[in-house]
Write a structure and sequence with these properties.
44% helix, 3-stranded antiparallel beta sheet, alpha+beta, 368 residues
Length: 368
């Protein structure tokens, strides 16, 4: 079994951290700090709870003055880098959490700290309370950061204002109207950094869930400009494609399916045990006299706790199927227990989707 992410905070990690810390704060009480960290509740805390616990313990052992502690944190980061700790260090995301937790009332100090800290470990979560509390100043700061020389600051200018950033607080005013962040995304679409361009795509994918027409318009305007931008646009439109949005399908060359047939669909495991897999096959036939570019997917309708079904779409392929061709498709869908989905026994359904068009649903049963 994979190690739980929350277990990154080992004794060895804290030894590295406190060794660097003590070079900046020589009188730091390491033994008291570690005793505070590894209290009786530590084992029961999840990842973000552990980060916040570290923040509170750190504040308890530093100065009561926030701005002084921010200066100390920046010095610690510099020392950690001198001591060989790499940039983009996920373990140190408690530094931005410190800013988020203690700094909301000291905007200028906190924003300056975020600009520095995000070059070491991402501040995409920490910036969001500041954008919510100070939307005009916050968005203007993100626009300024979109032109920063450091790629992680530029990435923050996009990632931090995603309307629906996973595992983070949403930004409702941007879900309602994202136009204020479009200048950021337009500027960064040509960024030299792949991680920045990926963030732009992810931001636009968020936007598409509430404002699809905005993303479709941008996609038509940007597509065909370069290989990198084409990838960005395709990634930004992934939700629209899964939803079968016809305008989006047309942009990427997925057209009519009049000559496409689904034949002999067989569910080989009509009763699927939790822990095993659904197995099915079908034959895809192109009966026409010309090849067809097809986006081939299947929809899985999961049983919910209330007895209704919830659809999730999985991609099979995106390719050209020759004229007068017949292709056997064989797929398995795992029902192994995972932390991100709770399975419920009972009726489930399977469907095949081609270029956004969904075909007949087929029943199968999930059992214990």
């Amino acid at each position: 079994m994979a190690e739980l992410l929350k277990n990154i905070y080992t004794s060895e990690f804290f030894e590295t951290f406190t060794n660097s810390l003590q070079q900046i704060v020589p009188n730091f009480n390491t033994s008291s700090f570690l005793k505070h960290i590894f209290n009786t509740e530590w084992e029961y805390k999840e990842l973000k709870q552990r980060m916040r616990h570290i923040v509170i313990a750190l504040q308890h052992h530093l100065s009561p003055e926030y701005s002084k502690n921010v200066h100390t944190i920046i010095q610690i980061i510099d020392q950690l880098q001198k001591d060989g700790v790499n940039e983009d260090s996920f373990e140190y995301m408690f530094f931005p959490d410190f800013i988020e937790y203690y700094g909301i009332n000291e905007y200028d100090v906190s924003i300056a700290a975020i600009e520095k800290i995000t070059q070491f470990t991402s501040c995409e979560f920490a910036i969001r309370p500041f954008i919510l509390a100070f939307p005009e100043k916050g968005i203007q700061q993100m626009i300024i950061w979109s032109r920063h020389q450091h790629p992680m600051v530029r990435r923050l200018s996009s990632e931090g204002c995603r309307p629906r950033l996973p595992w983070a607080m949403a930004l409702p005013f941007l879900k309602k109207d994202p136009t204020s962040i479009l200048p950021i995304l337009k500027h960064l679409k040509n960024d030299e950094s792949e991680s920045v361009r990926r963030s732009v795509a992810n931001n636009l994918n968020d936007v598409s869930k509430d404002n699809p027409d905005i993303v479709i318009c941008l996609a038509y305007d940007w597509y065909g400009k370069s290989k990198n931008i084409d990838w960005l646009v395709k990634h930004a439109c992934r939700t629209l494609l899964k939803q079968g949005n016809m305008k989006t399908m047309k942009l990427f060359g997925y057209g009519a399916i009049d000559t496409i047939k689904i034949e002999d669909l067989q569910i080989h495991t009509p009763k699927v045990r939790i822990g095993s897999a659904l197995e099915f096959t079908f034959r895809l036939s192109n009966t026409g006299n010309s090849s067809s570019k097809l986006r081939l997917e299947y929809g899985l309708y999961y049983q919910k706790a209330n007895g209704s079904l919830s659809k999730k779409v999985f991609k099979i392929s995106e390719k050209i199927y020759p004229e007068k061709s017949s292709t056997l498709i064989h797929r398995k869908q795992s029902f192994k227990i995972i932390t991100t989905r709770k399975f419920h026994t009972g009726l489930h359904q399977l469907s095949i989707i081609i270029n956004g068009h969904e075909f007949e649903k087929y029943d199968f049963e999930l059992i214990i």
